[in-house]
């Protein structure tokens, strides 16, 4: 049920292949509140599309839905604005987010990796078309170039950030955010080898008597009476 002008309620209004509705949100006290903006829902080749009309006017929302239905019936519908969002737009948003927050790593890490690595590979794709296999192919591509695991992980972290920001800013739907859980790889501890080598060196010195406590070395040098 939803409200319409005049404080009346009715079921979602159907218009040919689509419907008009308002979204509801749940408040902290458990009650539901209806949002004023109208949304539309329509179907194209069995796929459901939902889109905001960006208006609180029911009549304008009807006209918006009519335009969409006309586009579908004449073959001129090429997806919603969310479907047409390019990865280049999402990646630029990451750079803008770093600049907004004055992060010092933008010039040393974020901008170079985005402009030299991610943008050339993903930039031309629609964000809605990027799936896990696409990202896996990128990982293989970078490994083929000899990139270290840590480097690839930094790039994937920025890519994941671009999708999260896109969803927050309404550029893409939450359903279009890939699952990165199994994509980030375990990194070897870069300091581990150094530490093990240091332990072996000190152990060898102890075995040779070169790392004995200072008071024992002083006693060793004292003449016997």
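Sequence proposed for the structure above (225 residues):
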């Amino acid at each position: 049920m939803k409200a319409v002008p005049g404080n009346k309620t009715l079921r979602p209004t159907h218009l040919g292949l689509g419907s008009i509705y308002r979204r509801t949100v749940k408040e902290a006290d458990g009650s539901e509140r209806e949002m004023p903006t109208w949304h539309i829902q329509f179907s194209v080749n069995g796929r459901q599309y939902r889109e905001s009309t960006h208006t609180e006017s029911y009549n304008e929302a009807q006209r918006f839905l009519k335009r969409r239905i006309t586009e579908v019936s004449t073959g001129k519908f090429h997806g919603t604005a969310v479907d047409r969002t390019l990865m280049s737009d999402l990646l630029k948003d990451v750079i803008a987010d770093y600049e907004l927050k004055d992060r010092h790593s933008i010039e040393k890490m974020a901008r170079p990796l985005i402009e030299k690595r991610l943008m050339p590979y993903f930039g031309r794709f629609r964000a809605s078309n990027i799936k896990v296999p696409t990202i896996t192919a990128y990982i293989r591509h970078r490994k083929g170039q000899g990139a270290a695991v840590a480097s690839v992980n930094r790039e994937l972290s920025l890519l994941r950030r671009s999708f999260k920001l896109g969803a927050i800013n309404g550029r893409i739907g939450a359903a279009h955010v890939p699952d990165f859980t199994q994509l980030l790889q375990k990194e070897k501890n870069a300091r581990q080898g150094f530490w093990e080598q240091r332990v072996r060196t000190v152990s060898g010195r102890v075995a040779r008597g070169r790392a004995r406590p200072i008071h024992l070395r002083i006693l060793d040098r004292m003449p016997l009476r």
